[in-house]
Amino acid sequence: MSVFNVPPEPPDPSLPTEGLISDTVTVGAAVQAPAEAAVAAGMLPATRPRSAFRRGLEVFFENKLAVAGGVIIVVMVLFCSLGPLFYHGNTTVVNFINQTLPPGAGHPLGTDANGNDVLARLMTSGQISLEVGIAAAILATVIGVLWGSVAGYFGGIIDAVMMRIVDAVLSIPVLFLALVIVAIVTPSEPILILVIAMTSWLTTSRLVRGEALSLRVREYVQAMRVMGGGSARAVLRHIAPNAIGTIVVNLSFQVADAIGLVVALSYLGLGIRPPEEDWGAMLSNGITYVADGYWWLIVPAGVCIVIVITAFIWIGEGLRDAVEVRLQRR
Amino acid sequence: MAPLLQIEDLHTEIRLRSATVQALSGVSLTVEAGECLGIVGESGSGKTMTALSTMQLLPPGGHITGGRILLDGQVISTLDDNAMRHVRGNEIGMIFQDPLTSLNPTMTIGDQIAETVRLHRGAGKQEALARAVEVLSLVGMPRPAERVRAYPHQLSGGMRQRVMIAMALACEPRLVIADEPTTALDVTIQKQILELLDDLRRRLGMAVILVTHDLGVIAGRADRAAVMYAGRVMEETTTTRLFGNPRHPYTEALFQALPGKSGDDSGRLYNIPGQPPDLTRPPAGCKFAARCRYVRDACTADEPPLAGDADHPYRCFFPVGQATDPAEPAVLVTAEQAAERAAQEAKADGQPLLRIEHLVKNFPVTAGAVLQRRVGAVSAVADVSFSIRPGQTFGLVGESGCGKTTVGRLIVGLERASGGSILLDGEDLAKVKRNDRKRRGAHVQLMFQDSYASMDPRMRVGPILREPLAIQRVGSRRQQQAKIDAMLDEVGLPRAAVERYPHEFSGGQRQRLGLARALILSPKLLVADEPVSALDVSIQAQILNLMQDLQRDLGLSYLFISHDLSVVRYMADTIGVMYLGKLVEVGPADDVYYRPVHPYTKGLIDAVPVPDPQAERAARQKGVAGELPSNIHPPSGCRFRTRCPFAQDLCAEQEPPLRPFTARGHLAACHFPLREPEAAALSEAPA
Amino acid sequence: MVRRLFQAAAVLLLVTIITFALLRAIPGNVAAAVMGPNVYRDPAEIKLFDQTYGFNRPWYSQYLLWLGHLLQGNLGYSWNLNQSVASLLGQRILKTVVLVGISVVLAVIIAVPIGMLQAVRRNKFIDHFFNTFSTVFYAMPSFLLGLLLILVFAIKFPIFPAEAPQGATLGVIFSNFNGMILPIATLTLITLALFSRYMRSSVLDNLTEDYVRTAKAKGASEWQILVRHVLRNSLIPIVTLLGLSLPGILSGALITESVFNYPGMGLLFYQQAQRSDYPVLLGIVIVVALATVVGSLLADVAYAVLDPRVRYQKS
After folding, report:
1. Contact A328, A14 (CB under 8 A)
2. What is the pLDDT of residues B315-341, one digit of tens each?
3. C209/B101 Cβ within 8 A
4. How far is CA C293 from CA A7, A105, A202, in A?
5. Chain B residues with CB-CB distance to C5 below 8 A
6. Which of C216, C232, C233 lies closest to B57 in CB terms?
7. B166 chain-C contacts, CB cut-off 8 A
8. What is the pTM of this model?
9. Cys staple from C14: which of A168, A190, B213, C59, with CB 3.0 to 4.6 Å?
10. Is B172 in a helix, a strand, or coil?
């Protein structure tokens, strides 16, 4: 889990350029007469134009890990949301007779301390973990984007104050802050989403502010000003579209972090309250039996957590390569 | 005597992810001890690859796939890395293009120079450092014992390149390869560095391979020169012969594409059509055939072998020029003829379109703990005045820090002036309010040096060209489309280009797009900031010709900003020379060029390498000495006095005013100019 | 430099404001929050509390009073544990420092060579191998890692004890160092995952720089280039990273302490969070924030010292 408010990796340094020759256009075999207009014919690259978006998609799908990540998430979402429709295991009735049964007939993953079927519990818990994680990440991104754009756009003292606030909240470790808030307010699922979002929007805002600042001085924005364009056009037509790529990449990592955080909070007993359970709570309830070797109380939930977070990281990295390729082709 | 370096039929490939580039296909060169061989070519010619192959420093994916390289009779192209390490830095030294990135930013320059000595001579720390100091003084670094502890970022560009040279020389190699050693430097510093290299070569008896794209540099410094194109040597001979009697059509075309060489610069530059070939799929036959104006069937069928005599080989079936050298060299335009022409052209007609009066721009320098306080100001533009007439080109020339780019930005409104006025058709743009910025955009536009960076990479060409029209609300959608089509036709691009992205085009094509976008609003004045500086010579000619055509067709005025004096001289009707924020000389182009008044102008002209070996040799020992002072604290009085050979006390006390020297608008600001003002000028009121 | 100090001070001030806001956000009476709901039985007690601590005054003077206490080192009093927060922390803080300190040092020592190795052998097997490792450890929640380590190394193969040494003093900790192995391993592994990725990236960035080519042209060997040129330049951004990741490491420490029952600051925080012991919680928050701000500042100073471009301005 990343409690680090730091992206898992800075962008990969630029890959070697495709060609050392700047003009890799194949000239048609026909010989050109040295007249200006005739030069134009045959000077276009042979490739068909593809939109930047499509090219990004292509790069993304070439990345095996990213695709694997995508598949994993889709499978997991289906598993958690549609699974219970097909697999009816006992998830609510406390059944002490069937307590902590190892995997076997009728219970592919065994039962937990309350006699509930682990596989079924895995699905319902997964729903909560995923819901909270994704919702919190989206909320965090929205707040972060707003905060960062305002700071980056206005600059000056407004920027300084807003960023100092970000610094201040950032200097309180995420978990500490979340625990304090949760100690004050009893968490339910929506509250939990809010709490996690409150602690996660910070890096996004820094990122967006950085983008806003750097994009503001890009030459194409300057060119637009020379044409007579104003700030509104700069932001809407040039800065925002070019920043979206970074924001989407960051969103994926945010989801990974958010899921990690909600799971950690639940493990500490300050997340989802019983009788609801998410993967973290499953782990928390399972450790008491670890010494007896009841691995099925821990391993399935643990594996799910690791797989899902890893998948989002892979997706994030794939997105990042896709976004960079779009902008790097010269 | 056996040559020092022999490259025999060298083949080099670069294996990329998707394809393999045939970087070199059979290059053969020799370098004698103590001589200077120039390798000249454009991007993709393979000149850098040749240098890197010699040192076995090829980029990832690069391999020597054929031929061999011998140093003093020993084969070095097949040495493994361990053995090659003894050659690098020891037998062969190398100097790279950009000294800022080529030096380790966290190591002192002394340590970096000493490293070579410690690697090859096994010297101890103190010993090596002492040698570093020695070499630094050899390359002309002032106060070497002190500077040896400096870090690269603390030095100026010219000083850093001297450090690179020192590093390459520390172990007294017999051969030094210099890959574009001065391309990243100002012209006057460039001259100093080239003089230094020459001097060291003679003193230490080294051989030098000078790799460059600049024919002028070759003309002045190389004993022999090889012209490369698409991975082949097209022609090789002594420099005098190459410039006097080129045999290969490519060489001939290059000379005719150069503004400096064309001698008679009222004519058009020769425009080499097309692009260099794609070396992942090299064409059969002669690699230049697709762009050659003399091409015939035999050229595309087979590759021409080396022909000609032993000391002037060339690779062409149908060479140009004469089998023996012409008796007399080509006649250059004399100063008198140029002045005459200038007089005729300088007939002022009508009101100027743009008038700059006493323009000032200061950039604040801030420091401070909590609040950023202003501690000083960079005087980027200090009281500059000139005017541009309709339909004319004003060339603004100068080196880094002179303020020419800032002047351009002030005119188009990207910066606000600190003082003075910018009068376009009588209206003061400097006082324009925010809302009126749009109106300014209709009259004055800017063309960037790097058109790629100035276009939103996410937009296709169509929307990019439509944007100015949309902002200015010109016409309906259909009318806009018609304008876009017409503009593309004008700049010589196909209409289908609207569907493409900027990155799909080559450098020259992108400059055309930049022109198209800048002109689509039909402005009266176009400010072109270094429009061709990033282009190869052959492409440069295309763009310059295009700009001239457009000027004629659309009745444009240009403010042509460049550091390249030969290009400016070709394009401009009037030249203004700037130094450290001041306009030191202004006047009709040929007048300023052939009869300069200000010592800096003369130094600049002398420093610019011209592709004429005789002129270059005559210009040795000239140029401008010293380094550029800071423009936060510019020198008092005349800002050029710290580097001026004629400076006296008066120059420090009083700033010289801009005063006329001819009756035709030639002004300069100097107390001790190179010429006296003509009588006619003194009687006329100041312009 | 001075500007950074001012910024840091401003940030700390903001932290205190935020913490204070949190304190006031606690529902109900502050006295009840601090002393427990039992206090409602005795209104006089509440009144006394309010008067002593100034909670009957307008909020801004409350804040100033509270801030004043803070600056004097008075972090409040834990009625729950019947000790002043400061003394509680004093007992615990050193233990957390030991845990975090050893883990970070180990993580850096291991991450630097691994990151370098990965960068030099980019896209080869060893790169992918370590990449997978670091991804898995990065994705794995720290408590899960801790549990797994316990499962394997304390239960299945009882090499190390499952619980950390419980002693009150450092001496006891070190004499039972066996019990420290697993908690240190946990914290080190998750920190290592992040650091090695950044190191790899940093080295890759530097390997493509021009000065590496120059060094090669001088005749230096790959090893010499790596050690003498690339290493130092690659480490510089890592210093900044250290400063930035300190809050994350502390969060990780909190979890590690709770998994292994290690009597440090994190465990105290967790335990008191369950009991809503607000003085302790807020006191720790302040201390931790102070630590991260100071840590960040130190990282900036180190960066300035290491990078001559920052240390010496252009002459």
Report:
1. yes
2. 888 888 876 666 555 555 555 555 555
3. yes
4. 20, 56, 16
5. 369
6. C216
7. none
8. 0.83
9. A168
10. coil
